[in-house]
Amino acid sequence: MGIEGVGARVARKEDKRFITGGGRYVDDMVVPGMKHAVFVRSPHAHAQIKKIDVQKAQGMPGVVGVLTGKELKADGIGNLICGWMIHSKDGTPMKMGAWSPLAVDKVRYVGDAVVIVVADTKGQARDAAEAVEITYKELKAVVEATKALEKGAPQVHAEAENNLIFDWELGDGKATDAAIKSAAHVTRMKIVNNRLVPNAMEPRAALGHYDKAEDHYTCWTTSQNPHVARLVMSAFYNVAPENKLRVIAPDVGGGFGSKIYIYPEEIVCLWASKKTGVPVKWVADRTESFLADAHGRDHVSTVEMAFDKDNRITALKVDTIANLGAYMSLFSSCVPTYLYATLLSGQYNIPAIHANVRTVYTNTAPVDAYRGAGRPEATYVLERMMETAARELGVSPAELRRRNFITSFPHQTPVIMAYDAGDYNASLDAAMKAADYAGFTKRKAGAAKQGKLRGIGMSCYIEACGLAPSSAVGSLGAGVGLWESAEVRVNAVGTIEVLTGSHSHGQGHETTFAQLVTQRFGVPIDSVSIVHGDTDKVQMGMGTYGSRSGAVGMSAIVKALDKVEAKAKKIAAHLLEADEGDIVIENGEVKVAGTDKSLPWFQVALASYTAHNLPAGMEPGLKETAFYDPSNFTFPAGCYICEVEIDPETGLTEIIQFVAADDFGNIINPMIVEGQVHGGIAQGVGQALLEGAHYDASGQLLTASYMDYTMPRAGDLPSFKVSTSNTPCPGNPLGVKGCGEAGAIGSPPAVINAITDALGVVDIPMPASPATVWATIRATKH
User: Fold this and answer.
1) Tens-place pLDDT, residues 558-583
2) For the chain, which terminal residue's Cβ has fewer other Cβ atoms within 10 angstroms, N or C?
3) Residue 2 has pLDDT above 80, yes or no
4) What is the DSSP letter of 597?
5) What is the pTM of this model?
């Protein structure tokens, strides 16, 4: 390991341009003749569109075009789709309602796009948008998932009777019921996972450009997976043939899952560019993001956990209602099914598990993957149940977990997943030591003398990352493969370009991916460039989500590096008149082991391109490609401990300490991993204490700005104590597992467990705001 290679704490190469204002985001892109777009959105949660009058708007200054859904449909643009097929337990396919990029006859949530206005300036487009006259017939709305299933509830889509999209199950129901019936103890809870708005730093944006001379389209977009965007827009939405569509995702300011999907705006901007003859740019404002970005979470679950007389778990039964909003987003169906129910075993050896999931339409923004995507929901269910069960049984929450840990690997769970490696006791021990868990009783007594309520809570999480292999997810309904691609180009002077199908939007790929190359060839990290995000430059790739960049994206790079190394050694052996098996590459030199014979790296690269003296039959050049499809998911795991202090007079909760002990397998850059964990914990704490998307009964979003939707600030967070242990993943060449979502998965139950411990209550809803905590204290007469 060198100072720039694998395992080194290398400062992020990309940060220089970001902190000096040199980033290039979609809103920075300027194309000659470019105009600006504003969408007219529905002010109603549910209404019929009776009439659209655009005449006044079309005559306003600077207006280039005012376009409607009827025109879009007349041009053959298709509906948005959900790309993961789920079948109900009776065998019927999910009920996917039509989602036109511009609503034609009906709107189904506040923010549904109806008209696009294109003008010289954004201000002119906004003025004209206000002049568009739309006559609606307002209909009754339903916003809560449980109410959507009630008889007589407003019908969101005709295709889905009683708003039920699918009724799906996983596991052995009979064995689970039998174990619960014969249990020595059963813990029962209703658990709600609150709806969240992702709030990436950069709002979504799209710039569509149709080149009439070339009959070619270019879309700059804030996407986590530009190749998938191109595929879907060409194959399903009929925007353009794939060979005539270029998608570019430049610097992207955060995604957290919300930028995986193809939204109406990208489609409409490309179509509008051809329709109006000008490039069309749209950039969301923050309220627009609150209204129209895909939301996350929103589960209501009824849970039973059974124990035998020795406090070992014998069964887990979960019934979940998941709110998918007004339309099925691209991957929405897999989040509450195969990314949720398959993780309900957690770190525990549970013989029988049964999960039943019903997904429903409501008149709210579509819901899809948000940092963790199903794994946070599963962990919250399990870890709230474990903490509550420990209190009911009168045992230590730590020891109840330890008693039920899986200790032998590989381990086949009852819900599909086969865990390959782990040491859950190591994470628990590390977290308890760092938190001084044994000294909590003394600290609690000290807080009580100061009139404060102190509590401690833990959470032991596991997640499935990598989202693979393709054959497995295909058999479960996925519409795409989940492999990754890479190309390594060694230039004639020895500099190296790595083209990857992964996409970086805050993960630090330009640094960590370069570290792999530096480790392999001993070249300076500044001589390595990482290229991503452009479908015309990079071969087909699947993008970044599900903490897959390391386990899948880097593994593809390793495969390509293997090929480059093998060819470089053949060339060097030929030039140095040595056996290929004696050639080693280190510190920027290609050497014959045990001798003083060597060549500089650049000279081998140059020789591959001059081609004056290559081995017989060898093609010139030093460039290789690879595709990598994993054999299994990876399974990061860890233990989080949160300690809180509550002021009973105000309900204010202060996090006194937060400890995270994670097992991410081998680590490429510890500093970047720590940053990912810090960010994830901040988002998890935000969900637990502050964040929540709320609609009123008519479907109006009450939390559509930062005045009403509270984001965590620095003062809300302590200095985190983070550490890692290491059980390398046996399923990929690097032994990595993934770290990007862990903090957001493990932290919410740890915080809520700590608060309920402090208050002496069974449950408190998220977000546990000061008002909610204060009311809970008063209700329990603490």
Assistant:
1) 999 999 999 999 999 999 999 999 99
2) N
3) no
4) -
5) 0.97
pLDDT in the model for residue 781: 73
Dist CA 453 CA 447 (whole Å) = 6
Q: What is the pLDDT of residue 371?
A: 97
What is the per-residue pLDDT for 730? 96
* Cβ contact 301:375 at 8 Å: no
101, amino acid identity: P
Do β-strands 484-490 and 496-500 pair in parallel, antiparallel, or remain unpaired?
antiparallel
Give the Cα separation of 518 and 528 in Å (integer): 8
Among 75, 98, 119, CA closest to 271: 75
**Local confidence band at 363 (pLDDT 50, 70, 90 cut-offs):** very high
630 preceded by a cis bond (ω within 30 of 0): no
Cβ–Cβ < 8 Å for 717, 409: no
Q: What backbone phi and psi angles, to 5 degrees, belong to 532? A: -155, 170
Cα of 319 vs its chain's centroid, Å:
24
Question: What is the rounded CA–CA span in Å between residue 347 and residue 400?
Answer: 12
In this structure, are residues 187 and 389 in contact, taking their beta carbons and an 8 Å threshold?
yes
Mean pLDDT, rounded, of the chain? 97
Q: Which of 190, 197, 210, 398 is nearest to 311 (CA)?
A: 398
In this structure, how many other beta carbons lie within 10 angstroms of the beta carbon of residue 625? 15
Q: Is 745 left (phi over 0), alpha (psi -120 to 50) or beta?
A: alpha
Query: Cα(382)–Cα(386) distance, rounded to whole angstroms?
Result: 6
SS3 473: helix
Measured over the CA atoms of residue 456, residue 462, residue 466 and residue 468, the dihedral's sign is negative
Residue from 224, 232, 218 nearest 204 by CA: 224
pLDDT at 6: 96
pLDDT value at residue 1:
42
Place of tokens 């093609």: 619
Give Cβ neighbours of residue 350 (< 8 Å, ≥ 6 apart). Answer: 313, 314, 315, 316, 404, 413, 414
Confidence at 467, pLDDT banded by 50, 70, 90: confident
Two tokens, residue 497: 């370009």
Indicate the DSSP class of residue 712.
P
Residue 388: strand, helix, or coil: helix
* CA proximity to 369, closest of 543, 143, 148: 543
What band does 468 get if pLDDT is binned at 50, 70 and 90?
Answer: confident
Residue 416: other Cβ atoms inside 10 A = 17
